[in-house]
Amino acid sequence: MASRSFPSISFQRIMAFVKARPGIVAGGALLAAYFLDPDERSEDDVDELPLPSFHNKLLQNQNRSNRHILPPSNLIHSVTAGCLSAKKSLDTHPTGTEGTLVTNAAHFESLYQLGPKLGTGAFAVVYKCTPKSTSSNVAAVKVFDLSRVPAKKQARIRADIHKEYTILQSLQHDRIVQVYDLFEAPTQNKVYVVMEFCQGGELFERIVAKTTYNEKEARDVIRTLLTALAFCHEDAGVVHRDLKPENLLLESETDDLHIKVADFGAACLITESDCLSHYCGTPSYTAPEILARQKYGPKVDVWSAGIIAYILLGGYPPFADNQDQLRKRHTFYFHSPEWDAVSPEAKDLISRLLHRDPQQRLSAREALAHAWFEKEKEELEDRELPAAKEGIEKFNALRWVGREGGREGGKEGGREGGREGRTMQGPRLQPC
User: Which of 37, 39, 242, 321 is catalytic?
Assistant: First the structure.
């Protein structure tokens, strides 16, 4: 299936949207990515769109960094009478009960108090919710109204929701957005998914809001991202397949470093060999082997992490995102003056993450052993990155244009890379 572009929407509409919701740009409760995803298109257009991804970009939570996370071996799945019960450690669940997947929406109402609406899409609404057993924890629930989806697509979308829920249940890690419950209401044709509520918003929005920004902060974020990926690949056997900046959320409004990886709507198990040949992801962050329609593995996520690392340190993407450049991706550069302040070790790591040959590319675990992560923090704190911070601010503004227009790609970047006019934003490739 060929990818489709969405209708263009004016920049004036984007700015009106931003000005009406200042909390988004400041990294508040609402995350703009949710509103600008394909899910927001009108009901009349739903049948003409590619199948949507089920993003967790809004899903936010109070700071729970000190809680203990049990490994996946403590997660027990049992199937009885068509009902999957996912039993988790009590200290990972906001209600202090087991995570559930049940066919009775009334059970949701018995456990949670529905709060204010956070956002509305074509057939999903996100609310804040609070467990009735305690008012100290906050979660979010995304309510899918499948009656608003064409009948021929309902089964596929329902299966995708269940698949993402099951994968997230296996990812019990404090750097990954957690899922708590899934409830079905067959008579209403609705599905309720309860997840974490990350109060800090998107990572790049926080960087823009900072007064100063240095290489040590960038390193801390990249280390956390690689740690989450190493867990996904080695412990859980999961490939994310759609890593990008808007999928990196901050746990709290005050902590700049504790990111969580979100949006596993394109994820699949490493054991699903057929799945690891599908053409999917967001083109600007997608590894060359996917674009070449070759078989691939977990290192496609490492490539995406390399793109994110390059932007974090340089302030712009390494490649122009027109279609010709997306497929070639032979060479990138560390331009002056943007990269003058960045350490040689950081540049070396990026070069190894963005190796075109996946056999030569580092794994997430190998990357964590790189010399850059051994450097003294004081040295990296002294490496201020004003050019990167300014570049990320411009990059963020262009991402808004890309989100609202739904474009794949954009105008060509600088002479070798993506320094000029980069949106690095577009719809996913063919649904996975």
Answer: 242
